[in-house]
Amino acid sequence: MKPRFALLFIMIMIWMGCTEKPTKTPQTTLDVTQAHYDSLYAAIAPLKNGKKMMPRTTRNGKLVTVGIYDWTSGFFPASLWNLYGLTKKKKWKDRAVEYTEKLDSIQYWEGNHDVGFIMECTYGNALKYTDSPVYDSVIVQTARSLSTRFRPQAGVLQSWDWSKKWDCPVIIDNMMNLELLFHATRISGDSTYYNIAVSHADTTLKNHYREDNSSYHVLDYDTETGKVLQKNTHQGLSDNSAWARGQAWGLYGFTMCYRETGDSRYLEHAQKIADFIQNHPNLPKDKIPYWDYDAPASENTPRDASAAAIAASALYELSTFTENEKAQIHRNFADQIVTSLSSPAYFAALGDNADFLLMHSVGSKPHDVEVDVPLNYADYYFLEALLRKKETDGSEKDKH
User: Fold this and answer.
1) pTM over 0.85
2) Is 114 annotated as catalytic?
């Protein structure tokens, strides 16, 4: 090559190197989160008209999807709503609407108490961002369906129908379904739903909790007398242990009940649950609990990121109540949890974890089901915690 042509070649190569656009690398938790959910959305696109289109978890590292009648079916579209809330990007709203409306028939399902999880997290969240008489009617019809599970003599909503062990089992998880009933009363003006929710919350407050403010998992009621027949667990270590996610469900549920009713008993009880969780001697330093607070602590004991995410979201809301003299303590605790969940120890790298956000959750350890895996509800409550943090600190930036 002649010298002048060699010099020209070198100059061209330098110019191309200077003008080539750099590859954009996600930097913040929110950037990486969106990249994860872009990939997850693409992965399920071929399934969107099938029976099992909703991503739930992984098995042997592979994505597991479920149909709309699975109790977790609402958490993927609900996460899309949270992403819209965090970013205000139209694509997340469009995707959220797409998958939310696949759940339409659930409004008529009377066979499961979890319709509150499914429909309030989806249609309920949708109504935060759009006015829709159609969505309003879905919430009210779902509340009507859920209300068929109310057992007036016991004052509770029955959880399961499938067990031969119990007559009328009520799980602490059921506190989460009350939000839909409160919402339905606000829409319709019909106090029936509100009254059922209050009855269930009051009965749970009376019977489900121990002196140390930890919760049993399952109570069995006599539907004629209202007598408590048994106090058991289904997913915890033992009947008398404190199953981690159950404690988080209770914290979230009573915090929400205070928001909806203004009843100070619920606020006081939520504070007590928060104290139990935060001050438990078996809580690891990173604030992500073992799957049960009474499980032997060791490096091999599974953690439950889902329980941590639920608690963090609840704690952010709990910290907003001016009547709460422990507000800053609750907020600091929530910040510690979110910081840990946002770290590489729990927050998956792009391309890993089947593109779910959080690693290391536990579905049911006693049944050896979904142990140390991602779970769609862990992602949902983590995103809700980020959204609530953003709303309560007034920041428009992702600080994680």
Assistant:
1) yes
2) yes
